[in-house]
Structures are given as C-alpha cells and as structure tokens.
Amino acid sequence: MTDLTEQFSAYGRWRGNASDAVTRLRTWLVRNDVGNVQADMRLQYLLDRLRDDKLTVAFVAEFSRGKSELINAIFFADHGDRILPSSAGRTTMCPTELQWHKGAQPELRLLPIRSRARQTPVSELKRYPEEWTVLPLASVDAPGLQAALARVGDTERVAATEAVALGFRIDPEAADGIRPDAEGRIEIPRWRHAVIQFPHPLLEQGLVVLDTPGLNAIGAEPELTLSMLPNAHAVLFILAADTGVTQSDLAVWRDYVQGGGDRQRGRMVVLNKIDGLWDGLRDDARIEAEIGRQIDSVADTLGVARAAVFPVSAQKGLVARIQGDDALLARSRILQLERALAEDLLPTKQEIVREDTLGETGEVVAATRTLLEARLGGLREQLQELTDLRGKNQSVIEYMMRKIRSEKDEFEQGLQKYYAVRSVFTDLTNNLFSHMGLDAVRDETRRTREAMLESSFTRGLRGAMQGYFKSLRGNLQRSTEEIGEITRMLDAMYKRFSVEHGLRLTAPEGFSTLRYEKELDRLESAFNRQINTALTLVTTEKHALTQKFFETVAVQARHTFELANRDVEQWLRAVMSPLETQVREYQIQLKRRLESVKRIHEATDTLENRVDELKQGEEAVRALLGELGALQAGLAEALGETAVELQAGVRAAA
Asked: Has this prediction a pTM greater than 0.85?
C-alpha cells in the first residue's frame, strides 16, 4: 500500500467517524422527541453527502505525454502491471472515469460516439443504462482490466461530413483539428465517454480518476470543459520534458485547465519523461540543471509558481513500484508529486466537509438547545408559581388562573400576527421562485432559442446568447431582493415574539446568491472562449450552434439554478423552523400551566405532587441538555482528532 493510499484511507476513516457522530445525534433527537422534520431532513441530507462524498482527480494532456502511464504509476502499480493502456500514440480516445461505489458491479460502460447527434449531455445519459454498451468485468486482475480498458481506444473512420456533424473539427494541416486520410476519411473515437467500475482501495474511498483525451477530443465535448474539469478537486496537467510547452499544450492549458485564471488551487503541472535526460552522458549535476531550466521555462510560459511544476518519470516510477526498486522510485520523483497531491487535495476537501458538517449540525444543535432551554424555563416558571401557591387560599389560586388565561389570550392575539406573517411569507416565497425557479429558467431558455433561430446574422446570435446570461443574472438579482425582504420580515417577527412573549429567538440567518452568480460568471467565461468566438460563429451552421449552446451551456446553467433552488428551499424551511418550534412549545407550556393551576384549584392536595413532577421534569431536561452538549463535543472530537491524525500521516509520509 502506497503512502497516498494510506492517506486516502485515513480520510475515509475520518469521514466515517463524522457520519457515525451525525447518526448518533440524529438518533438521539428522534429517541427523545426533541427534533423536528426539518432537523431530521437536514441531518439525513448531510449523511447522504458524507456517504456519497467523492474526490475527483482529472488528468489532462495532449496525446503522447505519458498521461495514462502517470495514472498507472500513482494509483494502480499494486496490480503488478499497467492497467490503463499506455503505448506510443493515442491511447485514451474519450473521457474515462475510474470509480467504484458500494453495491456496484465490476463493469466497463461505453457511450457510443453517435449519441452526440442527439446533443444530449453525458450527465443526462448516465441516467439511462440502455444508452450504454456495458461489458461486465469477469476478472479485475491486471489482464482482465487491460483487455477491457483497451476498448477505450477504439476508433473508426467516417466521412468528413459525419465527423463534423458529431462535433469534430477538421484541418488538413492538423493544427486546429483532425487531418483527413488519403481517402478523405476522418478517424474518430468509437466511444464518447467511458466509465469503468472496479474495486480498488482508493476508488473504494471515494476517489474518481478522470482520464481525458487530447485537444481535439476535449474541444468536441463541451460538457467536459464546462462542468467536469472545473468541478474536479485536482487537475494534473501533463507535459513532456523533451518538448516543454507546445502550442497545442498552451491551448489546452488556457482554454480548459486554467479556465481564465480564476482558479489556481488544485491545479498542478507535471513535467513527465525526465528519464529521457538519463542518457548516460550527463552527470547528475547537468541533469538537475537541465530539469531546472525546463521548470523555469514551463512556469514562465504557463504563468504558475515554480513550486507548482513537478518533474517526474511516470514510466520509471511504475517500473520501480512493480519491481520494488526504492532507489529508482526516488529518482522518478513520483513520491514528491503524490505528497503534493495529498497535501493539496485532501486537507482542502477535508476542511470543506468539516465546515459543512459542523455548520449543519451546529444549527440543529443550537435550535435543539434553544428549545430545551425554553422548556426548562417554562418548567421553572411553573415550579415557581406552584411553590408560591403553598399555603395560599382559593382566591389567590383563582387570580393565578386568570393571569395565565390572560397570558394565553395575549399569546393567541400574537398568533394572529404570526399567521399573517406566514401568509406574507408564502407570498414572498412565491415571488422568489417566480425569479429563481426552474420555470423561469425554462421560459428564458425558450425565448433565447426562438431569438437565435429567428436571427439572420451573427450579431443577432451573439446578442441572444449574451442576453441569456444577462437575463439569468437579472433573475438572481431580483431573487436577492426577495430574500432580503423575507429576512427583514422574519427578523421583525422574531424580535416581536422575543420581546412580547419571552421566546428565545435569534435573528434568522440570511442567504446569499453569490455562489450561483460566480458560477454563471465562470460559465459565461467558458462560453466566450469556446463558443462565442468569431471563428465558431462564422463556421458553425445556425441550427447546430443553437443546439450546441442549449445542450451544453444552458444545461449547466439549469444545473446551477437547480442547486440554487435546492439550497434556498432548505434555507426557507430552516428560517421558519425555530419560530414554529418555539410557538408550539410556548403553547404547550401555557396549556400545562393552566391545567396545573386548575387541578390545584379543584383539589389542593395535588399541589405537592405536581411540584414533585415539575422538579423531576426539570432534572430530565437538564439531563437532556447535558447529553446534547456531549453529543456536540463528540462530533467536534470526531472531526478534530482524526483531522490531526490525517495531517500527522501526511507529515510522516513527507
């Protein structure tokens, strides 16, 4: 087992500990009847995210840079042979995902290239198994995996017109497209996308390895560049040490990896094939100097820090691991790359999961503690009232009944205002979803499609597409205004109930649409680089361009709004839940107070029994508060101590 595998395993254990702690909290809330539907939904959603947590590492390069060999060396050397095909020329002809999840069957799933003709994104086609060619893996040893994965490199020759219809660029000079053969036919991949599922220690921990094809194939699959690569937790960009940064390398980096320069973390440059310098004529000092010059040149050309460039020999690293040659492994420098990958990927991902888990559970715990403290306050108030009644005559008890009834009447008047607020809240929520909802996105998509199809000139096409982004941003801006109105209204209601009825309520948290605005910015930037160019607009037929825009850009925009809808729905439930819970609890306490005094009015000998009951209830609530605190501390400990252990594991490997 490699150090990287051990560190991924440590992360998996840490995530498992977090899931166990959340499960204990959720079970405790249900068992003690102190939760609510909203809290249970939030914790279940959190558990689902922890269970399905994935870490995607994407490998991007032009062909013949040793990309597949690097994947073999880092992740699959324990099979004793190459798993991904690695030979001269093109081996990866379509995006390939290597993954595993519990309950899956070992298999290779291949999506035929002609599915592009329907302009349906891969993410959508993943929902329909019948669209894929599925090859069960009878064996997951090296020969079985090699035979299956060799299919990823399948190609076929088609007429130029069909190649263009499927999204491939053709260039007789091969500078900006695929060169036709002597007969004018084009060699294209047989498959559009591949998913291989097989059990492996790293894949079982949630790792997803994304192997991508070269420039021409990348450009033909916009979903890869608009969604899959930007959402990868780490992207390794591989160059060859003997060539440095070529023009096609630079095009891949600028258009598909760097993404406009707005994201640098998790992006690493690998300078592969340094063993080509081991020619036996140069000593170690000259080899080191040559590697240093290449690193400086690559860093300067790509505009990255020198420390982000990692010189390696993937081929020698793989051989060293298979043969157990520690000296050769050290010389290959694979370990330095793996260490950087672990130190960059795992802690960043871990911190995101930690903050998410602590944030979700912290809000649930805070709401539960507020409820229990309110319940405790009510019990103490009842206890004080009944204690004060000891030795009092019937007139005093009658006065107490009138006082409680008066409080009940005042509270019911306050409830009328609460119900009015609920009505306004519903109206504002409907207004919010009229801007942010998926119906609004579908309407804008339809209007933009019609405008593009009716346009006769390039300017009209460009204006319609740019107007699409402007409209969606306008929807988000109007949604932000509605969210502000909802927040201000609830804040006023929270303060009123806190002052007038003593409810323990804190101001509701706001909701920001900045995340979705940033995603639209990223999507528009990618659109401007890949579709909104003079060359594309002039050379692409109008209907094909319209279809391409809506089945790539519009699909990603819709996905962004789907996430926004899910998140805002959860926020709306969360901001109303504390008020609803406190109102319900206050009603219960008022009813119990009135019933207690009524029973005492009817039979004074029940006073001491009721006082004893309240004292026992007080102790029970205090015990629940103690258990809640212990659960929260246990959750923090599960997230904190194993985090320290993981960091220690990374440092030890260093």
From this structure: no
